[in-house]
Amino acid sequence: MVLNNFGDAPHQKLATITFQNLFPPINVRKVKLSTCQRAVLIDYDKATGRFNLRHYTISAAPTGANRKLRKLLMSRTMPDMGALTGEDQRRERGYLLLATHPPHSKPNPRLC
């Protein structure tokens, strides 16, 4: 929960305490992002004397990976690769994630 533009007036202090007691306290240093699902922004508009409430959904997604890898990381279950017989089948379905040496080449000892 984020409170914005709340002042020191008695009715604003009461509103602050009321909104804070609606939600459980969060220890920012210990909270895991995966447990946070929603965020609430409460803004006090001084001109109208009203509270504006906005509700946001939080989702975490991997970045910097190709589409097939992101899809694999976001899925809850691991794919069944037992029925696949060779590297070609795994590669065409996007399951071969690590670079392998070609079958008839010698690995470079400096890279291993």
Task: Give an overview in words.
By secondary structure, the chain is an alpha+beta fold. It has 2 domains: 56 residues, no CATH class; 35 residues, no CATH class. Helices cover 24% and strands 17% of the residues. It contains 3 helices and 3 strands; from the N terminus they run βαββαα. A 3-stranded mixed beta sheet has the order 1-2-3, with no helix packed on it. Strand 2 and strand 3 form a beta hairpin. It starts with a strand and ends in a 20-residue tail after the last helix.
Compact overview of the structure:
This protein is of the alpha+beta class. The chain folds into 2 domains: about 1-55, no CATH class; about 65-100, no CATH class. It has helices at about 10-20, 65-75, 85-90; strands at about 1-5, 40-45, 50-55.
Strand content: 15-25%
Overall structural domain count: 2
Tell me the total number of β-strands. 3
Query: How is the largest sheet built, in terms of strand order?
Result: 1-2-3
Please tell me what the overall shape is: rod-shaped
Poorly predicted ranges (pLDDT <50, ≥5 residues)? 97-101
Work out the helix count. Answer: 3
Largest sheet: 3 strands, mixed
Secondary structural class: alpha+beta
Oligomeric state of shown chains: single chain
Topology as a string of helices (H) and strands (E): EHEEHH
Spatial gap, N to C terminus: 49 Å
How confident is the prediction overall: mean pLDDT? 75
Rounded to the nearest angstrom, the radius of gyration is: 26 Å
Estimate percent helicity.
10-25%
